[in-house]
Amino acid sequence: MLMENTRPKKRTIPSIMRALELDDYKGQLRHIEKPVPHPGMGEVLIQMAAAPINPGDFLFMRGEYGVKKPVPVVPGLEGSGTVVAAGSGLVPRWLMGKRVACASSKERDGTWAEYMVTSAMLCVPLLKSVSLEQGALMLVNPMSAWALMDIARRGKHKALANTASASALGRMILRLGQRFNYPVVHIVRRQAQVDLLRNMGAEYVLNSGDPEFDKQLRETFHALDVTLALDAIAGEMTGHLLDALPRGGSVILYGGLSSTTVVTSGLPLVFDKKSICGFYLIDWLSSLNVMRLMTTTFSIQRLLATDLQTSVRARIPLEHGIAALETYASEMTQGKILIVPGNHITER
Ligand SMILES: NC(=O)c1ccc[n+]([C@@H]2O[C@H](COP(=O)([O-])OP(=O)(O)OC[C@H]3O[C@@H](n4cnc5c(N)ncnc54)[C@H](OP(=O)(O)O)[C@@H]3O)[C@@H](O)[C@H]2O)c1
Q1: Which candidate, 95, 155, 341, 348, has a CA 20 to 30 Å from the CA of 208?
Q2: Which CATH architecture has domain 141-283?
């Protein structure tokens, strides 16, 4: 009988790694080689398995994200991999050898590389049931979908609306709405997206390209008592939502997919007690105490294969990462593109 060797393999860490690097915030990337970084106090070195391209990465590469690092810099907000070296500290040492979902730290390079050093506090050890592939997609969208749904439910809103609803995050909100029996109005921009969400069982789907869109929005909000609208688009969409909401309603802006300024007369804010505020995952996470943070990450991992699953359109090697940005941006609804530095994802 063959005995399986369960001891973790000792990995040799090279001195040079491949990465994608940004020279300035005009968005131009280069495929480069650079030294593998060393983890300092409280940090770990992760051998990257996979890292997605998200809309937030585009904001980062234009210098418009919540964090702006000195250039040159490796972008990539999130990913997954195995901890192969630990700096000093209890948590880094505890993470040694573990498969983790990870986010890049403010002070260091990002995930689009063969190796990344980050704070141990930005790593979540993955449950056995979670693949490195879904783990790579765990921190940005599933956490945000969970957070936004939590905000809506705690705010005692009877129903909510969401824009760009065919997005990965939008589909998570759809499934969470179904799980919690919570009415959600899904707003998309074309018929194929209406069909996609209807096939997932969505009841209320509006197409912003429809000439009657504003009327439909007002009527649906009224019928379902929608008092909260989540907006990933900005530009004119935010104004449409504000106009359609009842007195006292609010818009939470959580993205800027249209890359345009919010358009509103402002009068609904003045005369109808309506409001706009922003949502940034990092701020929401820092508002949680340690216990709630732990239960949240556990609940999210348990749902990663179902409600919080992300569809992956392609897995591509690092050297094709630059072309992949364009492919992804050309039709984001098709699913995420994962940058896979080792060319394939090895679970151990
Ligand atoms: N604030 C935070 O902390 C936070 C955290 C996580 C995510 N987010 C935001 O959540 C949003 C969704 O992210 P994701 O990764 O789930 O997206 P995704 O899966 O890449 O999908 C993006 C979706 O938006 C649609 N879209 C793109 N530009 C649009 C526009 N101008 N008007 C209407 N629809 C548009 C795309 O449709 P097409 O296929 O037609 O292009 C696609 O369905 C993004 O804005 C992201 O920045 C924010």
Answers
A1: 155
A2: 3-Layer(aba) Sandwich (3.40)
